[in-house]
Amino acid sequence: MEAPKPEEISHPPMDQLQGLEYCIDSNPSWGEAIALGFQHYILALGTAVMIPSFLVPLMGGDDGDKVRVVQTLLFVEGINTLLQTLFGTRLPTVIGGSYAFMVPIISIIHDSSLARIEDPHLRFLSTMKAVQGALIVSSSIQIILGYSQLWAICSRFFSPLGMVPVIALVGFGLFDRGFPVVGRCVEIGIPMLILFIAFSQYLKGFHTRQLPILERFALLISVTVIWAYAHLLTASGAYKHRPELTQINCRTDRANLISSAPWIKIPYPLQWGAPTFDAGHAFGMMAAVMVSLIESTAAFKAASRLASATPPPAHVLSRGIGWQGIGILLSGLFGTLSGSTVSVENVGLLGSTRVGSRRVIQISAGFMIFFSILGKFGALFASIPFTIFAAVYCVLFGLVASVGLSFLQFTNMNSMRNLFITGVALFLGLSVPDYFREYTAKAFHGPAHTNAGWFNDFLNTIFFSPPSVALIVAVFLDNTLDYKDSARDRGMPWWVKFRTFKGDARNEEFYTLPFNLNRFFPPS
To answer: Which stretches are transmembrane (predicted)?
Structure first.
């Protein structure tokens, strides 16, 4: 067969990603869906354990407090995921904890009025109640922007070109959670990375009863193998005389979660006591809520593509943000030590498994709620070394970033204007947060360091986030630089029909509310 001529080669833009086995509203068999849901639950454990493991000791809490916070975070994650998949955007997204809230929460921990409390447990409870109060107040930002449809109006300024750096940096911006963590225990991290890539990509043609079992369950299989290998190394005494940091990252018995966890414990609102409210804390937390808003907007768009759906209409996106605001309110009421955002790693897993089914994510939410109540069993899975998760993140964060880059197909990349905007937004989105991180590591405070603590928290939180910096730069340049004559180059004609619910017939299939609720909440 004669080779095609270069001028005959064409890759036309496609507003729905092809090649998925199951899209948003098609479902695998119940057995396969349950196994896939459990796989999403295991992946969500990484962030759910890491955030409390870092913050609780700083607050004066012990291992028992850490376990309760992990259980509470998973419980609320399950509730928020169900709410989002049923009544929010209805995209197959896990709503998990967010690292964006770390900056204002650490600032609250170091507040002089709390730091001077001598009794560790009392300091932990007082700090937790202060964080809860800040989360409850700041959640109003997303609730108002979402349900008033103000975010829908804002999103009309987002073109495919403007969203490329934002979505790309939702993945690339988390590079410090990837290989730098793998490098802390290479004897576990490197084999995990190799095994996951081998199973999910090179051996994906291996079928059992017409099911590509290695591709579909690459995460579960590789985690099981490497976890057993890590336990073998731990039991054999391989880390007995190694430095403390190596033991924390490599051993399977250092989390102290199983021994500290109760058999059964149901988290409930205000379980830590009545929240306390401080205006300065709330203002600082509002910046994290804005960062969560930006990161989730980008992750929703990535999830829509990996679920083989059309881009979510503006009012659907805004509706999802409103429900995420409710999620942050629940986080404050229950006391999770983190706000809510779309879990980027779980979005990446949609692409890795090629299953974008909504039902799978709802099943994973059921696992989160179930295992958060059965403390011992949940703690068993939560004791997986974080290095194993970091190896998987190297693949999944990169996959989400590449989905962002795929939006370039709707734009004209032979335009100097588009090259300038894309390049500058990507570079500054990586460079500015890196400067803020390095400055903070050396000076023990962010570049914004005035007498107004809330102002410092606000600026430092915003500029710590790569997607937030990318959105500010890309959307500003895209809507001010020769914008009148470049609608086609920016890719706007491709997204115009998805701005309104009735602009495309597929929107009804993907985004209609269940239980015939659209009668009471008619789409715009």
So the answer is: 38-58, 130-150, 157-175, 181-199, 211-230, 360-379, 386-407, 419-436
